[in-house]
Design a protein that fits this description.
The protein has helices at about 1-20, 25-35, 60-75, 85-90, 105-110, 150-160, 170-180, 190-200, 230-245, 245-255, and strands at about 35-40, 50, 60, 75-80, 100-105, 115-130, 145-150, 165-170, 185-190, 210, 215-225. It is of the alpha/beta class. It folds into 2 domains: about 25-120 and about 215-275, Periplasmic binding protein-like II (D-Maltodextrin-Binding Protein, domain 2), CATH 3.40.190.10; about 125-215, D-Maltodextrin-Binding Protein, domain 2. Strands 1, 4, 5, 6, 7, 8, 9, 10 and 11 form a 9-stranded mixed β-sheet that branches. A two-stranded antiparallel sheet has the order 2-3. The longest helix has 19 residues, at about 1-20. InterPro entries: Bact_solute-bind_prot3 (IPR051455), Solute-binding_3/MltF_N (IPR001638).
């Protein structure tokens, strides 16, 4: 009988202790508590995040975005350089708080992580010979189109060109060479790479043009851990504030805008991904 009373007392005390134990703080509270936002960025991909040749400190569009988001949250940014393939795993493992590394939305990624609102959209585009500059995507039905193996560019070919025959190569340079050698009728790559290539060969016999219709539109957003609603809301609020103040456009123009080698014009605003019209890839 005495043993039962003691055991019952232990249950009561244990219950009391359990009831007063602090609940695990959410991610946003953890970040604010330590005063630091761990931000996963590319280790060396221009113009997003790469070491400055003189200082060896990371700089780039994504570095500026990380610092700006951290400032909006009232903390300091801690940059964590990541390999391209490590972006999602490191985020899922909790080794970084967020990923800002030109991260495109895909169906597969959306099952693994959460995405913020999109802050700009990149495009996969079709590069063609100058003579084909006025043609539409439908005009390339059934044609051979090159792209880098395993890329979103390659995935876009059967999506955007009816019966398009994807011819893939180990790298972008080889895929472009196939167009130059007339082995394919077009070459698919991202808009920034296409713009640089077009400028490099302009005025030569191998001059190319970018088709007016994009092959694919890819929303770029901040990657976050799943099931952290307060953190997701805070990041979206930060992005909206940066949009409203003009800071977002300033960062974009500094690294990708008309006065840069990429020559892009930002037409997108910070927008929830589910409000965008695009065909997501797997």
């Amino acid at each position: 009988m005495q043993v039962k009373k003691i055991f019952a007392g232990m249950l009561v005390v244990g219950g009391a202790v359990a009831s007063i134990a602090p609940a695990h703080a959410d991610q946003l509270a953890d970040i604010k508590g330590r005063g630091e936002l761990s931000c996963g960025v590319y280790s060396n991909v221009e113009p997003f995040s790469y070491p400055n040749a003189q200082t060896r400190q990371l700089e780039g569009m994504d570095v500026d975005l990380c610092n700006a988001v951290a400032k909006q949250l009232g903390v300091k940014a801690k940059l964590e350089p990541l390999a391209v393939e490590a972006r999602i795993p490191q985020l899922k493992l909790g080794r970084v708080d967020i990923v800002v590394a030109n991260l495109a939305y895909t169906k597969t990624r959306a099952t693994q992580i959460a995405f913020s609102d999109s802050y700009y959209s990149t495009k996969e585009v079709l590069v063609v010979k100058k003579a084909d500059a006025s043609k539409k995507l439908t005009d390339f039905a059934g044609q051979k189109i090159s792209a880098a193996d395993g890329s979103t560019s390659a995935q876009s070919i059967p999506i955007s060109i009816k019966d398009g025959q994807a011819v893939t190569f180990h790298d972008t340079s080889s895929a472009f060479l196939a167009l130059e050698q007339n082995k394919v009728k077009g070459f698919v790559t991202n808009q920034m790479t296409a713009t640089k290539i077009a400028k490099q060969v302009d005025g030569t016999d191998g001059a190319v043009a970018i088709a007016s219709e994009p092959m694919l539109i890819e929303p770029i957003a901040v990657g976050l851990r799943q099931n952290e609603p307060a953190m997701l809301s805070a990041v979206n609020k930060a992005l909206a504030s940066m949009e409203q103040s003009g800071e977002m456009s300033g960062i974009f123009n500094k690294w990708l805008g008309p006065k840069t080698p990429y020559g892009l014009t930002r037409t997108d605003k910070v927008t929830p991904i589910d409000q965008l019209k695009f065909t997501p890839v797997s």
